[in-house]
């Protein structure tokens, strides 16, 4: 069966699905494979639960015309997404970067959805499976698509851009993330800049922060750009950031000066798509972060900056710097290991430990095997694991404190909330 025929069949379905636990009536199920599962074995169950068709790549599971046999389910999903993207004929905005991708995507969506019907990446489904699923979730009603793209090695962004075929793109920043896969910060810059390479090659539009010299250098003299960074001014971040914009003050629910650029690009994109100033301001002010990303939570007298979704050396340094600048006294930073740093893990964890030791933060607690192997500072408390910290948590007398909680996803430091 040709991919065009499969696409015509897809158009008769209500949605696509890759998980039998989330089957919806009349969906098309893609029997993807993973390290520990074979989706082909779930094809029959998907039909029993209401799927209209299942895409499989192992002939022994084919039992009726509802089973569509292909050479490779994943490649079919990706090819189908590109065909669908072309058929929609709508502007697609793609973004990547080392830090702040998901928050920026949510801000852009909040702004554009004031004037358009938008479809954006759900959560951080930003890889070789998530990007196709995002595209296939777009309908004829969608007026603008917003696609987040993540990567941990070279050529991944290049691959994703050729699936999504974006008309507009941006990179939030270049940072020390996924060094294990990229090899170095230079590798990160090269890998993320594959976004720029695609946009330039296809004469598409780049949104560029004029205040980020590294990005300006990567874009070079390419003319089809929308420059931002002068429309707004950061006023304060105590703890939420306030921004001056067109003789108005935007008061956000975002903490950290590092979120200023994320807001700025959302405003620039809103302006480019002719969203009114009033609607832009309302969208930014109404956006409340969640999912452990720069959330401020009040609990038992504590003000907690819960930023435990992920961490890398760049974002960790920025979070600590911002935390020190807050006016509050009696501050505690609880930091967890940063993953995917490869050969740089030891030196990067040592650098963060050294930096935290220098700051005017009353108490620093480091959690994880990487932090535990660094050269120790007397004023810092070290724990090999979360369980180790949990067993000794009662020895700390926390009372009415400002607490920063940050670590990589694998550390799951949001569990500390249960201990406070």
From TrEMBL:
- Localisation per UniProt entry: Cytoplasm
Q: Which reaction does it catalyse?
A: D-alanyl-D-alanine + UDP-N-acetyl-alpha-D-muramoyl-L-alanyl-gamma-D-glutamyl-meso-2,6-diaminopimelate + ATP = UDP-N-acetyl-alpha-D-muramoyl-L-alanyl-gamma-D-glutamyl-meso-2,6-diaminopimeloyl-D-alanyl-D-alanine + ADP + phosphate + H(+)
Q: What is its EC number?
A: 6.3.2.10
- Which pathway is this protein assigned to? Cell wall biogenesis; peptidoglycan biosynthesis
Q: Where is the Mur ligase N-terminal catalytic domain?
A: 15-78
Q: So where does ATP get bound?
A: 97-103
The source's superkingdom equals: Bacteria
Domain Mur ligase central, which positions? 96-269
Q: Which residues form the Mur ligase C-terminal domain?
A: 293-408
Coarse class of the primary localization is cytoplasm
Kindly state which keywords UniProt assigns to this record, in alphabetical order: ATP-binding, Cell cycle, Cell division, Cell shape, Cell wall biogenesis/degradation, Cytoplasm, Ligase, Nucleotide-binding, Peptidoglycan synthesis
According to its UniProt record, what is one Pfam family this protein matches?
Mur_ligase_C
Q: What class of enzyme is it?
A: ligase
Provide a Gene Ontology MF annotation, just one. ligase activity
Keyword ATP-binding in the entry? The reply is yes
Q: Summarize the protein's role.
A: Involved in cell wall formation. Catalyzes the final step in the synthesis of UDP-N-acetylmuramoyl-pentapeptide, the precursor of murein.
Q: Which protein family is named in the record?
A: Belongs to the MurCDEF family. MurF subfamily.
Cross-referenced HAMAP family, in alphabetical order? Answer: MurF
Name of protein: UDP-N-acetylmuramoyl-tripeptide--D-alanyl-D-alanine ligase
């Amino acid at each position: 069966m040709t991919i065009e025929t499969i696409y015509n069949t897809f158009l008769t379905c209500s949605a696509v699905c890759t998980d039998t636990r989330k089957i919806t009536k009349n969906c098309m199920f893609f029997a993807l494979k993973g390290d520990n599962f074979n989706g082909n074995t779930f094809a029959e169950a998907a039909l029993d639960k209401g799927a209209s068709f299942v895409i499989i790549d192992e002939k022994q599971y084919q039992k009726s015309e509802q089973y569509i046999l292909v050479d490779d389910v994943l490649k079919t999903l990706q090819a189908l997404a590109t065909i669908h993207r072309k058929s929609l004929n709508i502007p697609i905005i793609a973004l990547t970067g080392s830090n702040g991708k998901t928050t920026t995507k949510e801000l852009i969506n909040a702004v554009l959805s004031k004037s358009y019907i938008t479809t954006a990446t759900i959560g951080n489904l930003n890889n070789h499976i998530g990007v196709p699923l995002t595209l296939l979730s777009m309908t004829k009603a969608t007026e603008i698509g917003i696609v987040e793209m993540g990567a941990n090695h070279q050529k991944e962004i290049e691959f994703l851009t050729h699936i999504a075929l974006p008309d507009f793109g941006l990179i939030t920043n270049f940072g020390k993330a996924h060094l294990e896969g990229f090899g170095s910060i230079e590798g990160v810059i090269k890998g993320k800049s594959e976004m720029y390479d695609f946009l330039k090659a296809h004469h598409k539009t780049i949104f560029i922060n004029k205040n980020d010299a590294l990005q300006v250098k990567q874009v070079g003299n390419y003319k089809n750009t929308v420059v931002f960074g002068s429309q707004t001014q950061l006023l304060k971040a105590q703890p939420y950031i306030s921004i001056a914009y067109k003789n108005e003050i935007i008061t956000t629910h975002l903490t950290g000066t590092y979120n200023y650029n994320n807001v700025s690009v959302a405003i620039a994109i809103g302006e480019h798509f002719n969203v009114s100033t009033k609607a832009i301001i309302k969208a930014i002010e109404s956006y409340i972060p969640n999912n452990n990303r720069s959330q401020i939570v009040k609990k038992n007298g504590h003000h907690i900056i819960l930023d435990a979704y992920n961490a890398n050396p760049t974002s960790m340094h920025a979070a600590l710097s911002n935390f020190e600048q807050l006016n509050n006294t009696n501050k505690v930073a609880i930091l967890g290991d940063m993953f995917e740093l490869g050969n740089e893990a030891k030196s990067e964890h040592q650098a963060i430990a050294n930096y935290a030791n220098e700051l005017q933060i009353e108490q620093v607690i480091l959690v994880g095997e990487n932090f535990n192997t660094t050269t120790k500072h007397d004023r810092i408390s070290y724990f090999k694991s979360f369980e180790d910290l949990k067993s000794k948590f009662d020895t700390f007398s926390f009372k009415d404190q400002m607490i920063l909680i940050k670590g990589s996803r694998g550390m799951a430091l949001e569990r500390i909330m249960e201990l406070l």
